[in-house]
Amino acid sequence: MSSSFRGGLRATNQRTKATPSASATSSTNTASSARPRPSDKLNPKTIDPFAEPRRSPSAFSAVYSRGGIPCRLVHGSVKHNLQWERLPETIPFDPLLITLAEGLKETRHPYTFVSQEGFKELLMVPGAKEKVLPILPKVTAALKGALESLGIIKSKIPTYCSTCS
């Protein structure tokens, strides 16, 4: 500890003893806490370059987390599968297929697998052509957005470590 710090502590203690009222003591403490310290100039606020970027969840991840997509990921020992809560033939395509198409731009597990497999499985359903035609412009716009996404391109490029094994 430095001598100037000790002196400051004594002066504060002497002020506290000199003033009998509690309100004067609390006003002294709040005034000293509101004042910036001289050492604050030496410690500028920085961000951690290695931290996960904070971003709001995408529309697909929010819908999936709330249970808005009627399927769940079944983890197998080698292969993953989707388990549908209802038969895919009975599910209305209007909100679901568009949401799955928007999820194709996801880069994190389980969203990538659920969006890709769910989209494929819904398109393989008998009678899918008749269900997709009315919503084709919306699906096309979502697919275009997924293709324009830079994140999905980066996630598909092999890195040095992935080619070694």
UniProtKB/TrEMBL annotation:
Composition-biased stretches (Low complexity): 16-34
Region named Disordered: 1-55
Coiled coil: none
Domain of life: Eukaryota
Signal peptide: none
Protein name, UniProt field: Parkin coregulated-like
Residue stretches of biased makeup (Polar residues): 1-15
